[in-house]
Amino acid sequence: MNKVASYLQEHIAGEVLVAADARRYFSTDGGVFQITPSLIVYPKNLQDIRKVTRFSWQMAEKGHRLPITPRGRGSDQGGAAIGPGMIMVFPAHMNRLLELDPKRRLARIQPGMNFRAFQDAMHSHALFLPPYPSSIDFATLGGAIANNTAGEKTVKYGAMRNYVKGLEVVLANGEVIQTGRISKKEVEQRKGLTNFEGEIYRQLDGLLTDNWEVIQKHASGLQVSKNAAGYPLAMVKGKDGSIDLTPLFVGSQGTLGIVAEAILSLEPYTPNTVLFKINLDDLNQVDAVVKAFMQLQPSALEIVDKHLLDFVSKASPNQLKGVIDAPYPSFVLLAEFDDPKESLQVKKAKKVEKWLKQQKIEYVATQDFEDQQKLWAIRHSAAAVIWHVEGTKKALPIIEDGVVPREKFKEYVDSIYGMFKKYGLDEAIWGHAGDANLHMQPFLDLNVVGDRQKVFKLMDEYYGMVLKLGGSTSGEHNDGRLRAPFLPKVYGPEMYQLFQDTKKIFDPHNTLNPGVKIDVQLKDLVPMLRYEYSLAHLSDHLPRT
Ligand SMILES: Cc1cc2nc3c(=O)[nH]c(=O)nc-3n(C[C@H](O)[C@H](O)[C@H](O)COP(=O)(O)OP(=O)(O)OC[C@H]3O[C@@H](n4cnc5c(N)ncnc54)[C@H](O)[C@@H]3O)c2cc1C
Fold this sequence. Notes:
Number of strands: 20
Bound molecules: flavin-adenine dinucleotide
Distance between the termini: 22 Å
Shape: globular
Largest sheet: 6 strands, antiparallel
């Protein structure tokens, strides 16, 4: 063990690792980049996080850089859970549900808690946390908070930010703060503090006040229904002068502070839903159905295309047997209504059926749980692409997650198909039709020079296209390293400058997940591109406890 690691090990209750295999293991996440860290830390408690963070800050003050990348399960697809200094891994010890108040529908959790375990516990109280990602089985709540995750229920319930009511955050220098909305009077009191927290409130309040109009203008600028890119500055300060730092930390990917605890709000869980499967052969029809359904507030409105189903039936012939038969329609939509009042659900279902019949659109509707699970397998079959290996080619998460204004959905799909054709790639799309937020992962071989070049060409073209349609580069997977170079284009130079200033206020020595979100150029990514791609760490290595 080197000197630094020994020093840290002596001072914290958790563990510190520097073994080559551990560093290699944590050199990748769910994305296409690789950076080998110097050491791994498994914090056991708040004090451990504070000590390590303070140590990193003091090192930086002396000109030595040992930054911190907080990490949940490392399923991030944009390279946000890797970094060159210390990887601070939460699922090992800080993984508990600390408190649940079912009546007030509030839970207090540690960041390393597995999302699925949390959700199962909530279901037994007739509650649930709606913005679960499709990676729910391995994702942690800390990762979900830091990424502002979203998923199939977001069309009705919104993203993670809606459900984080307060945070305990370790700041860059090791100080601890509790977040939540505080009044103008309290803001003035905080600004009077002589510590780093006081400095943050002074500087941030100044930045928000001085740039109020720019921030408000941009807040109403992007016409997308969900957005994980950038920092949501417009949500921090109220017109009444109150401030809440919570929305700023949510989605900040560990670049502004480290989440040590969170208070989450929950929704009543309705296991009895009605689910529609609709087969469509025309994109205009998809548009029309989405528009009609959105008026009835579905709890999910998901899409897969024929190319995905063709792929699944070839790669995994039994997976969809008896659920949907070839030849497949061009698109399948799944629409769910989860209204707790059954009479309302029935009313909506009747309305939908009447409309579909008028339009002569083929559909299946069911309230049966088992049948619904079978139909959901159509949407969840997208996992077959993600985990598939085609010779030396892998499905790479490089152009995915763009979200566009709902009225641009058809153009978005057409453009994606055009791009895949242009580059001679097999197309397949899936995602959240109700939010006009789609996923796709082209098969490429990272050992082939031509394919490595294609990665960057495709990124440029895809994210350029999304921006041209008035969209955002990330609906839910966040900027990470992958999409960070495009962030100035999503928001424009004025707003981007404010993001840079915000980062400086919270992280003056750049010790918190540097190289993520802010100040990243495409050329920085080239040397980090992996030569192989795998998600094996999500299935073959479990956290330490
Ligand atoms: C197959 C697959 C499907 C996916 N589907 C979805 C989806 O439907 N929706 C979606 O939104 N995402 C999805 N993702 C992306 C990812 O799984 C989610 O964002 C997930 O919530 C990340 O959780 P994690 O524990 O793996 O976090 P990690 O990958 O470990 O970390 C993610 C980010 O959070 C930061 N972080 C972690 N813990 C803390 C902490 N305590 N304090 C501060 N920062 C912290 C990390 O530094 C990093 O920036 C998918 C990924 C895969 C591989």
